[in-house]
Amino acid sequence: MEQLLTANVANNIYWLGRYLERIESTLMEIVNTFDEIIDVDKSAGKKLFKRLEIDIKYKNANEFLYEATFGEHESNIYTLISYVRENAIISRAYIDTNAFGSIIEVSELLKQANNDQINIDCAFIEKLSSRISEVWGELTRKQERNTSDYFIRLGKLVEKVDFHLRLKRNKTFSLVIMDEIDTIVLRLNPNAQFVPHGERESYDTILNSINGKINKIIVEDE
């Protein structure tokens, strides 16, 4: 792990991991919600994005897929992949070459789909999910870890907790993931001190704690 990173590079790699995880988690929720709109509750898509503090409108399940992918809001997949691309370009020297190429390809796929205004269906969403999984595979296949790899992993885990809590899911899962976050932060900053958290604590308390830990290694140490 003998690799020196500036605070700017560490921050970009960290957010690369976060945005990738946000896309992957969102795509999974989109597929599940699509089925729910058809079979159970037509307003399921609105409820999902409401938890993300976003209002969307759609008339049917297919329109929901389009709104989730290209809608005029900050959590659409098209916007999120642009953030991934931007962070990948800035930190290109520190990420796997194949992963970088795959990120550009996914970005171009969405750009072309947007320009051509193609019909967005579940097959397209599942294709995106598969490509994002491939990117993760390319980013994590190395046997020996560098500092940059830990920042990518950290971004993935933090976003996993953040997304899970924003959807008001069971806190037990998030607390387990936080243990791994603590392990990585401690590896990057041996002097870091942690406060344990329990399920009775609020979502905001847990998220603020995570952000404080990230500041210890990106703001204070780099």
Query: Spans of 5+ residues with little confidence (pLDDT < 50)?
Result: none
Number of domains: 1
Helix content: over 70%
The structure class reads mainly alpha
Task: Tell me the β content.
Answer: under 5%
Span from first to last CA?
15 Å
Q: What is the 3D form? A: globular
Q: What's the rounded overall pLDDT mean?
A: 90
Q: How many individual helices?
A: 9
Radius of gyration: 18 Å
- Please provide the count of β strands: 0
Pattern of helices and strands: HHHHHHHHH
Largest β sheet strand count, sense and barrel closure: none
Overview of the molecule:
This protein has about 220 residues and is mostly helical. It has one domain. It is built from nine helices and no strands. The two termini are about 15 Å apart. The model has no long low-confidence stretch (mean pLDDT about 90).
Q: What labels describe this entry?
A:
single chain; 222 residues; mainly alpha; 9 helices; 0% strand
Summarize, please:
By secondary structure, this protein is mainly alpha-helical. Helices cover 72% and strands 0% of the residues. The protein is globular, with a radius of gyration of 18 Å.
